[in-house]
Amino acid sequence: MGRGPAFWSAFVVVLAFALAYPLFADGYDVGNNIYFLNWTFMALGLSLIWGYGGSLSFGQTAFFGVAGYSYGILTINFGTAYGFGLLSVLIAIAIAALFAAVLGYFLFFGRISGIFLGIVTLSVTLALERFMAQTAGPQWTIGSARLNGFNGMSGMPPLTLPWFGGEISLYPDIGLYYLVLCLLVVVYLGLRILVNSKFGNILVALRENPQRAEMLGYDIRKYQLGGFVIGAALAGLSGVLYTSWGQYITPSNMSITAAALPIIWVAVGGRSDITATLIGTLVVLSAFQALTIYGSQYALVVMGLLLVFTVLLAPKGLIANAGILLGSLLDRKNGGK
Amino acid sequence: MEFVTAIVSSAYQFGDAFAFLVLSACGLAVIFGMMGVINLAHGEFIMCGAYMTVFAVNWGLPLPLAILCGSLFAGLVGMIIERVVVRRLYARPLDSILATWGVSLIASQGTLILFGPTMRGVGTPLGSFMVGALSFSYYRLVLIATALAVLLLLYLVFNKTRFGVLARATIQAPHMANALGVDTNRVYAFTFGIGAALAGLTGGIYAPTMTMIPTMGTTFIMEAFVTVVVGGADVFLGTAPAAALLAVVKASLTSWQGQLAGQIGLLLAVILVIRLLPKGITGFILKDRA
C-alpha cells in the first residue's frame, strides 16, 4: 500500500489539510488534538518491530514510561535553560533505547522469539509498573523530582526549544502542533526509507523465514535487535511528547491495559504497513476518545471486541484490508480502460 | 528455639512462594504445554473463579464447595471461549495471544461494569498457630497442600487415565491421533477447560486472602508467565522445578528486601534463564536424557 502518483497526491492533500487545520480551529482544540499525534510514534515503532520484523513486543509502553519518567526527572532537576530542554528529550529517548538494547540483547541473543518474546516483554512492563506504583514514599526522590508512586509525577516543564534570543516553551497550542506534525512527517518518511532499504528488506526476510535469512549470511540477531531498539526509541519519543504535553505521567501508563492499546491500534490498522498503522492508530484512537465520553470501561470493552474480531476475521488489519480492496478496485478500473 | 523458628519461618515462606507460583502457573502451563497457546486471559479466569467463589459463599455454601463451584464455572467459561475464539486460531499461535488479550480486556472491564470497582470478600478461615515468637496462618498450609495435590492430580490425569493418553497422543501427533479416531477438537476443548478450571481453583482458593477487584488477576499473571517461561513446555518436568527454583529466589529476596525485590528478582532470574536455557528447564532435562 502507498505507492504511485495517486498515493502521493493523497499524501500531499492530507498533509495540506493537517497544516491548514489550526487556521480553522481554536488553539485549545488544536492543543488537545496533539494527544492523538503523540501516540502515533509508538505505534509506528511497534509496526516496525512486529509487522516488519515479526517480533511481537508487548513492551512498547515500558519504553514509553522509561522515557517519560526520565524526561520528567531530568527537566525537574535541571530546568530547561540553555537548550537543556531539548537535550533532556534526547537523553530520555537514549535511556529508553539503551534499556531496549540491554533487554533486547538477552532476548534476541538468547534466541527468544514468538510467544516467549511477547510474554517476557510484557512481564518487564508489568514489573516496571509495580515498581513505579510503590514509589510513593518521600525516600523515592531523584534530585528534586518526586516519583510519587501511583499518583504519578507531575510539574515537569513543557517542551522547550532553544531559539535565538531566549527559548520558547511549547504549551499545548498551535506551535506544538506544528512541531509534532513535522516530527511525524519526518519519522514517517524516514521509516518508509528504512523499510525499503537493505535493513528493512532483511527484517522482512527474517520475519518470513529466520533460518533462510541466516543461511544467506545475515546475523539475524543483530537485525532484530536493531529493529527493536529503533522501535523502542520511537516509543520513547511518544513518552517524552506525552509527558511534556500533559506535564504528567503515571505508572498506569505502563499497566496491562495500557500495554494492550498500542497492540490494538497496530493490529486493527494493519501491522505490516506503516501507512495502514498510522491511519489505523488515528482512527482507533479517535473512536476510543469518542467512546470514552460514555465511560472508559465501555470503551475498553469495545477495544477488546475490536481486537478479537480483527484477529478472527481480518488478521491483516482492517485498514490494510480496506487498502487492498481499494487497490484492487482501482486496478480493475484501470484494466477496463 | 531461635534456630527452629528460623527454619520453620524460611520453610513456610518458601512453601508459600512455591504454592503461589505453582497455583498461578499450572492452568497456564497445561494450556501452553498441550496446545502451544499462551492464554492472556489467564488472569481473568482466576478472577472469574474468585468472584464465583465469593458469590457461592454469600449464597450459603461452605468454602470448599464454593471453591469447587468457582473452579467448575471458570472451566465452563474456558470451554466456551475455546469453542468461540481459540479454536479458530490453533494454526496461528501469535494471533491467539492477541485474541485472548482482547478477551481479557472484555472480561475485566465487563466485570467492572457489572459488579463495580470492588466487592466484599470472605475472611481468611482457620486462624493461626505459633512457633516461637512468630505466628503462622493455617490457611497458607492449606495452600501449600493444594499446590502439591494439584501437581499430583495432574500427573495422575495425564498419565493414568484414558483421557490423559488421548491428550498426550494429540500433542505428539495430532493428525495421527485424529486418523485413529480421537476427536482432537474435544481433547483440545477439555484441555483448555482443565487449564481454565485450574485458574478458577487458584482464584477461589486465594479469594479469602485478597481484595476482590476486577483486575485481581494481574496479581498472578506476571508470576504465572515467569514460571511458564522458565519451566518450558512440560508441567511436571518444567513448571514444578521452575516453581521450586523461583520460590527460593522470591522467598529469599522478599524476606531480605520486601515484596517488590522478590518480583524484580524473579524477572532477572527469568531473563538470565532464557539466555542460558532457551527451552526452559524442560529442554534442559530432556536434553540430559537424550
Describe the secondary structure blueprint for this structure.
The complex is a heterodimer of chains A (337) and B (290).
Chain A: H1 4-24, H2 27-52, H3 60-78, H4 84-109, H5 114-133, E1 141-142, E2 145-146, E3 153-154, E4 159-163, E5 166-170, H6 174-196, H7 198-208, H8 210-215, H9 220-246, E6 248-249, H10 256-269, H11 274-292, H12 296-313, H13 318-336
Antiparallel strand pairs in A: 1-2, 3-6, 4-5
Helix pairs in contact in A: 2-6, 2-9, 2-10, 2-11, 3-4, 3-5, 3-9, 4-9, 7-9, 10-11, 10-12, 11-12, 11-13
Chain B: H1 2-35, H2 42-58, H3 63-84, H4 93-115, E1 128-131, E2 134-137, H5 138-160, H6 162-172, H7 174-179, H8 184-206, H9 217-231, H10 235-257, H11 259-276, H12 280-289
Antiparallel strand pairs in B: 1-2
Helix pairs in contact in B: 1-5, 1-8, 1-9, 1-10, 2-3, 2-8, 2-9, 3-8, 5-6, 6-8, 9-10, 9-11, 10-11, 10-12
Question: What can you tell me about this protein's structure?
Answer:
The complex is a heterodimer of chains A (337) and B (290). By secondary structure, chain A is mainly α. Chain A has 2 domains: 27-253, no CATH class; 255-337, no CATH class. Chain A is 74% helix and 5% strand. Chain A is built from 13 helices and 6 strands. Chain A has helices at residues 4-24, 27-52, 60-78, 84-109, 114-133, 174-196, 198-208, 210-215, 220-246, 256-269, 274-292, 296-313, 318-336; strands spanning 141-142, 145-146, 153-154, 159-163, 166-170, 248-249. In chain A, the strands form 3 sheets. Chain A has a two-stranded antiparallel sheet with strand order 1-2. A two-stranded antiparallel sheet of chain A has the order 3-6. In chain A, a hairpin with a 2-residue loop joins strand 4 (159-163) and strand 5 (166-170). In chain A, helix 2 (27-52) crosses helix 11 (274-292) and helix 4 runs antiparallel to helix 9 (220-246). Chain B is mainly alpha-helical. Chain B has 12 helices and 2 strands. Chain B has helices spanning 2-35, 42-58, 63-84, 93-115, 138-160, 162-172, 174-179, 184-206, 217-231, 235-257, 259-276, 280-289; strands at residues 128-131, 134-137. In chain B, strand 1 (128-131) and strand 2 (134-137) form a beta hairpin. In chain B, helix 1 packs parallel to helix 5, helix 3 packs antiparallel against helix 8 (184-206) and helix 9 (217-231) packs across helix 10 (235-257). The model of chain B has no long low-confidence stretch (mean pLDDT 79). Chains A and B meet through helix 4, helix 5, helix 10 and helix 12 of A and helix 4, helix 9 and helix 11 of B.
